[in-house]
Design brief:
Layout (H helix, E strand, L loop, with lengths): L10 H21 L6 H8 L3 H7 L3 H26 L5 H18 L1 H13 L4 H21 L5 H24 L5 H16 L29
Length: about 220
């Protein structure tokens, strides 16, 4: 991703960078991503465009920093939720992780969707890729505790599928203006467990390979590892 020209080193410069980022987030929230530009951001942040350019060479650099911080905050919260789920059931553990995603997305749904859109367009740097891998690793690790018979590849697939399922439901709820974190968390958890529960089958006598993905009876479809 496009990086900051430099990182702030003093409290005053840190405060200005924070003001710039919050101003950009507010513009996106209130007016939409298309209205975001460096001039508008500087004006809302109460600084000169020249001061903004000391740290952000472009609008994309502002977006990249918002995305970077969002990823790091998400990783921290997911890691904490996973740690707190030690000894919990799969249902409780999934509820905890889902709750993190729901709460973050519904807090500022317009901004969240805009950052997702921008992320798909921006080129990821090594730091951003490493953070995303760490986020994925949290989900894989949690599933591995409760589905120890699955292969690493199967766990990766399950984590990716559940993440996509949750993201789709949460985004749709945000667009509808839903505000109840608890209600949405319960629904998304229910859907995620609908996917995960069949994977908890204990395989006896070698009839099925551990980690195999088996289609429902009558579907005419099925696949293994």
């Amino acid at each position: 991703m496009t990086e900051l020209r430099k990182r702030p080193r003093q409290k005053r410069s840190e405060a200005m960078v924070e003001a710039i980022l919050e101003a950009a987030a507010r513009i996106i929230d209130e007016e939409g991503l298309d209205r975001l530009n460096t001039n508008a951001t500087a004006a809302k942040a109460g600084c000169s465009v020249g001061s903004l350019y000391q740290y952000f060479p472009s609008k994309d650099a502002i977006l990249a920093e918002l995305i970077r911080r969002d990823h790091l905050a998400l990783l921290e919260q997911l890691t904490l939720a996973a740690r707190e789920s030690a000894g919990a059931t799969l249902e409780q553990a999934v509820y905890g992780l889902v709750g993190v995603g729901v709460e973050r997305q519904l807090a500022r749904p317009v901004l969240a969707r805009a950052l997702d859109f921008a992320e798909a367009r921006l080129v990821m740097d090594q730091e951003a890729e490493a953070t995303l891998r760490a986020i994925e690793a949290v989900a894989i690790g949690l599933l591995g505790v409760h589905l120890p018979h699955l292969s690493r590849k199967a766990l990766q697939l399950a984590a990716a599928d559940v993440s996509a399922l949750a993201k789709g439901m949460i985004d749709a709820a945000g667009r509808r203006g839903e505000a109840s974190v608890a209600a949405l968390t319960a629904r998304v958890t229910h859907a995620a467990l609908g996917y995960l529960t069949p994977l908890r089958v204990t395989y006896a006598g070698g009839a099925r390979k551990p980690g195999a993905i088996v289609a429902p009876r009558g579907s005419g479809r099925g696949s293994g590892r």
